[in-house]
Request: fold
Amino acid sequence: MRASVVLGMVLLAALGGYAVSRWQGSPAAAKVEAGHSAATTAETSAQADTGAQVSGDAQTAATGARTSFVADVPNTATMSAPPAMPPESLPLTQSVAQLIELMRSGSREATLRLLRQTEQCALYHQGGLGLGMALDLDEATRNPQPQDGSVAILFNDQDGEKSQLEKMTEGAAGLMAKHEQQCAGFTDPDDRLRFEVQWRAALLGELEGLILFSVSPAIKLERAIEQSDRIERYRERALSFLTQAMAQHSAQAVAELMEAYDPEWIPPPLRPQAGKSIPPGMRALLAEGFPPPPLRQVAGNDAQAAYRYAQLCERVCPDQQRSAATALIERLRGSLASAERELAEREAQRLREQYFPDAHRADWVAIAGEPAEQAASAPGTP
Reply:
């Protein structure tokens, strides 16, 4: 065994892998229960200037207040003829203006292209931040310098194995290399474009948009007050968007709802793993650094709803999520009265018959920050 002492970051490598985008807000005053459609008016979001030259700080309303991140404008009909699209291999800095124009004119193709590429470039940006941090930590490991108020982290690894720091460096460098040609030089101030694209894709009913907007919205905890318009849109539509995803036979939507309602939710990095367990006292302390994800904050604690979606997930989800559903059912069974369980089971059967009548399942949408094996889960079977 060997140990390296790294100064600074408390929750670094041992807690890596948590979702890239985090946001915290108070629970919705009026929940939109999944299974009940929200208004289907064709809404759009626009006026979100993006790209390397954009600065939202300079934009103000006539009253002096900061303008909204998302402004409603009349929606235009989807183009009847396929638009001329820029080559997909073109770096986003060169194609983004044309793609935005096409998207705002109603092009599904341009919207989906931007959705995928802005998600990739968000990963590229995170990879750059992670690589810089890993290199700084490596330097601190090689040349430790005592500093007042600093916190030491111990990285232990088996002889002959790569250290956590080495793995972290390689992972960040891999993200950079994978998306550099597409994303180098592209910036998206305040994630304005990424939010707009998620919103538009969801309004178009595209599965990727429905899932990404509901599960990984471009909303930041640090800017919750400034981005309150985004939060309102999220609170109003996230759960109903997942119902739309279920209507497209998405078992992923079922798994996300199951976890969102779970009253005993634990942040993924703190969950017990094979051969690894964080002591309860340390877990409670570290949990303060992991606010619940947006969907959970909208859904709130609801054991009966969690049980309902777990029952459904056990029948339609891929193996990994199905195992989680079985464990949740066993865990919550004793906390529900028999009448509550029976109602939840009947509702699960109704949803199964309504949304999953055959073996077909929608593709699993990759979410930034998820483990690769989860994102790659194959569709399940009845």
